[in-house]
Structures are given as C-alpha cells and as structure tokens.
Amino acid sequence: MNRIRVLTFSSICLLVFGATKAENSGKNPNVVIIYEGGTRVPFIVRWPAKVKPGVSNALVSQIDFTASFARLLNIKLAPTDACDSRDILDAFLGKDTIGLPYIVEEAGSALALRSGNWKYIESPQIKNMKPLQGGNKAALYNLAIDTAETNNIIAGHPEKVAEMAKILNEIRNGKSLR
Questions:
Q1: Which residue segment(s) compose the domain that 123 sits in?
Q2: pTM for this prediction
C-alpha cells in the first residue's frame, strides 16, 4: 500500500489529494475502464480551520475543482469556462453529505452515469473489456449491494434505465452541466 505524509504549517492551508486509479478492493478488476475499480478513488480534503475530520460518501468528481475553487476564491466563471465543472464546494468542505445528483464517467466510447447508488453504463464495447451479461449493450448496477458490478439488473428496472438514459442523452447532446 502506498502512503503519503503531508506536513502543513498553518490551519489556513487547504490541501486536496486525490488518486488517479483505485485499489481494487472488491471492485471490478477492469480498473482502467468504465467500472468502479477505475473511477472510485480515494479523495482527501484537509483544511483544519474549515473542515472537520471525518468520512463522507458524497458523490464528487475532480472535474468540479474549477467551479468549486472559483467560488471559494470569489472568482466568477463565464458560462463557457469549465462548462463541465459544477460547484460542489460544500461537499468538499463537509457541509453537504450527498454531493452531486449525478456524474458522467467516460472510458473510450463508453459512457456511464452515476446517480446515488445507481450506475448506468451505455454501449460499453471497449477493447479488452469482458462482455456484459447476456450480450447486453447497456448495464445497470446497484452499487449499494454490488460494488464489483457483477450483477447487471437492467431487465428488472426499466423506469430507472429510462430516467438515467435520458439524462445521459441530454448531456451527450450538449446540455451543460452547470
């Protein structure tokens, strides 16, 4: 296991640390693609003057640093600046335990939408990726009970699939995240 030791000399210092790929503790072994083993990574925010120690399950994404830190620094972003970045500063500071309503994940030509404990993967036909169950071109997982993403439950949840596919399609067709 890799370790990092950080020394801070002031309680006014903000430190943010995130990884680029997860250890595979129970997650799908396809860590460099669309599954949680490649996207769910450790993330640490340390700011003794503002953030209380603890663990959060808030849904956050590193792509949202720009909008979040712009707010922290009182910088106004133009609509075309970091258009995929959303302000989730409250989640970073431990004030919001839910975070984003959804995040988009991408690996090659595959797209996925995470929303709460649900993950919808669309057309995951990627080189070296194991086939989905039943030859499906889409998948739905309940990450609360299946973090390894081994049980594609798409057939049993048509309403959830339709809802998540609609959101993903709107984003693909240019709907701004902000």
A1: 15-172
A2: 0.74
